[in-house]
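$ ./design --mode recover --in tokens.txt
reading tokens...
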């Protein structure tokens, strides 16, 4: 479960916060479903404050925060018609259903006052979004037709059409820039531009689908709501339908499974809602999704092609990943020529051979994968594949660690492939945020022989940079300035950039907030690290092992000598909670991390479990076993408001 928490946190951050996913939606959904099943079977280990129980990602600091008067929720997913029927069992009470295509875009809130557009915000974490009003002015109506007096708030989805997406990516490639992974990420990246002119030039669209407080306008159904929105001049999808029964819903879903390819924009499913809004209020919501609507996700599109070769890439942690080289084939609107084969076990399980005809899919139009092998098409000329015994990048003997399916190159110190990937990760936005150092430049640096450790990039001269292909004097000066500025980045950025297994941005912040410096973290025991709420034993072991490695310690010493920021001031703002220990349980309005930081900021301590030494248990909804144990031990139980009152007293 801890491994899943770490993986999901990382991939959610890539998707929501960086608009740069590494895995398909279907693979992410599978991780979440696996975690949900484990949480159900082992509730004592479940993290109720985890992002899978919430909405979206963190609001960007580039834009002013906007607190949503009504939370912007997400949708739960189903992947088959039986699941859909089960979800609505006993809920319809005679209501029909409204079917709308599920757009793969970025959710936004639009506010009109007396018919004039006054504010637009992203969903953010569901409670607080980003103010992107000026960027939205380029794509939403400035005025409503025949507007009602007062406030009108609507919710919708910003998207980019395939036509605009292909044009922008062609331009990126011409400029030598990294192309966008898919239209959703292009739309999200565009909407978060600080320059509204770029937003207007790139071209985005928006479809509105939800009217807040529809009843005050005399509207009682989603069907009438969509008609009202259209009459006011707001853009809605062309494809939507009222269905009287779930049987009709099933026909709509089946019809548009292939028909959606003609729409010109990405849709990956159908949103099914109860049409009667009175039921919306009676059924209510969970902490992150309504109980009256669900997203039916389509299975990824598949195409047939042939494997012409299998090659191996080496990742940042030394993992050897086999890659299938394919005869080019069109899947979900793009040409696919490569697909990850993950590891030797995956190849053996599917019996994949060079020369095989295979079915390929791209979940949510992102990363290709091989679904199945057509063994009936074999001629006897196909070649079984065996993973190499030596690293293709450095020649080191590969190893297979216990309980791992992957082969690894153990030569972390001097394997050029690992160093290039580590350098790219180190320079990433969540890491040291060194603009200009991406995959291409990282590989050039390693090939030049100038880099043997991450710290070496800080020793390069302007002449070293300009000696590289396509690096002029101005670019070299910019990179050098970025490198110097990175030395003052917050310590959490450096902890992230170090690439400690299972440690993403959130975990890095937890470690810094608890230990304050790399030296303290280095001296911490595995038990001390595991005691941090939100870390756990798997991550603790990984962090502890990292600081037992001589190579890693030498790297940190290099950073120290170069003047890096290796500590943070974590002294409390005041001592209102001095000497008191707190445990949190249940669903709160804030994240567990935010609550813990409040305690520490006021001189208190936070623990992950209730004991006789616990001063207070702060209980939200569904307190569970911690609440029962606190009552048994006589530990004082506080509501969230009582806890906040204690701080402000």
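writing sequence...
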């Amino acid at each position: 479960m801890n491994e899943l928490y770490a993986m999901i946190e990382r991939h959610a951050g890539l998707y929501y916060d960086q608009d740069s996913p590494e895995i398909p939606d279907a693979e992410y959904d599978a991780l979440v479903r696996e975690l949900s099943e484990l949480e159900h079977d082992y509730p004592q280990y479940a993290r109720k404050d985890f992002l899978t129980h919430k909405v979206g990602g963190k609001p960007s600091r580039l834009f002013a925060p906007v607190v949503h008067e009504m939370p912007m929720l997400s949708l739960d997913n189903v992947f088959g018609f039986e699941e859909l029927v089960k979800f609505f069992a006993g809920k319809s009470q005679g209501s029909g259903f409204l079917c709308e295509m599920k757009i793969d875009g970025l959710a936004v809130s639009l506010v009109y006052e007396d018919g004039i557009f006054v504010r637009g915000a992203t969903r953010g974490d569901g409670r607080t979004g980003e103010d992107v009003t000026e960027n939205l002015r380029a794509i939403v109506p400035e005025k409503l037709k025949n507007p009602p007096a007062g406030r009108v708030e609507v919710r919708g989805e910003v998207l980019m059409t395939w036509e605009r997406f292909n044009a922008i990516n062609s331009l990126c490639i011409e400029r030598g820039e990294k192309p966008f992974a898919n239209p959703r990420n292009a739309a999200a990246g565009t909407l978060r531009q600080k320059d509204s002119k770029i937003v207007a030039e790139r071209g985005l669209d928006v479809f509105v689908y939800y009217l807040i407080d529809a009843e005050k306008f005399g509207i009682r159904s989603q069907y009438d709501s969509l008609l009202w929105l259209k009459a006011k001049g707001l853009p809605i999808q062309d494809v939507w339908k009222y269905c009287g029964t779930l049987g009709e819903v099933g026909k709509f879903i089946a019809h548009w499974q292939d028909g959606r390819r003609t729409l010109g924009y990405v849709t990956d499913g159908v949103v099914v809602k109860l049409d009667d809004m009175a039921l919306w209020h009676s059924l209510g919501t969970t902490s992150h999704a309504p109980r009256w609507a669900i997203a039916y996700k389509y299975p990824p599109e598949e195409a047939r092609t042939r494997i012409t070769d299998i090659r191996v890439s080496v990742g940042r942690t030394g993992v050897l990943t086999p890659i299938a080289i394919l005869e080019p084939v069109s899947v979900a609107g793009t040409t696919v020529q490569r697909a990850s084969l993950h590891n030797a076990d995956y190849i053996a399980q599917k019996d994949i051979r060079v020369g095989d005809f295979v079915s390929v899919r791209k979940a949510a139009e992102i990363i290709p994968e091989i679904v199945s092998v057509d063994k009936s098409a074999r001629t006897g000329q196909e070649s079984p594949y065996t993973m190499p015994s030596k690293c293709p990048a450095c020649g080191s003997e590969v190893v297979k660690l216990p309980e791992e399916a992957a082969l690894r190159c153990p030569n972390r110190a001097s394997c050029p492939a690992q160093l290039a990937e580590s350098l790219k990760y180190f320079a990433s936005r969540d890491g040291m945020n060194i603009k200009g150092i991406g995959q291409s430049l990282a590989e050039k640096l390693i090939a030049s022989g100038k880099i043997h450790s991450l710290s070496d990039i800080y020793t390069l001269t302007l002449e070293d940079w300009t000696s590289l292909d396509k690096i002029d004097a101005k670019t070299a000066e910019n990179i050098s300035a970025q490198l110097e500025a990175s030395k003052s980045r917050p310590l959490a950025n450096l902890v992230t950039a170090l690439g400690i297994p299972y440690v993403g941005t959130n975990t890095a912040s937890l470690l810094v907030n608890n230990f304050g410096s790399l030296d303290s973290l280095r001296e911490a025991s595995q038990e001390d690290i595991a005691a941090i709420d939100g870390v756990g034993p798997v991550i603790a072991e990984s962090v502890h092992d990292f600081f037992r490695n001589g190579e890693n310690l030498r790297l940190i010493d290099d950073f120290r000598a170069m003047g890096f920021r290796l500590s943070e001031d974590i002294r409390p703002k005041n001592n209102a909670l001095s000497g008191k220990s707190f445990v949190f349980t249940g669903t709160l309005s804030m994240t567990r991390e935010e609550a813990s930081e409040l305690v520490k900021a006021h001189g208190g301590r936070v623990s992950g479990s209730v004991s006789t030494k616990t001063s207070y248990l702060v209980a939200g909804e569904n307190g569970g076993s911690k609440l029962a144990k606190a009552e048994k031990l006589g530990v004082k139980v506080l509501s969230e408001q009582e806890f906040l009152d204690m701080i402000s007293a």
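exit 0
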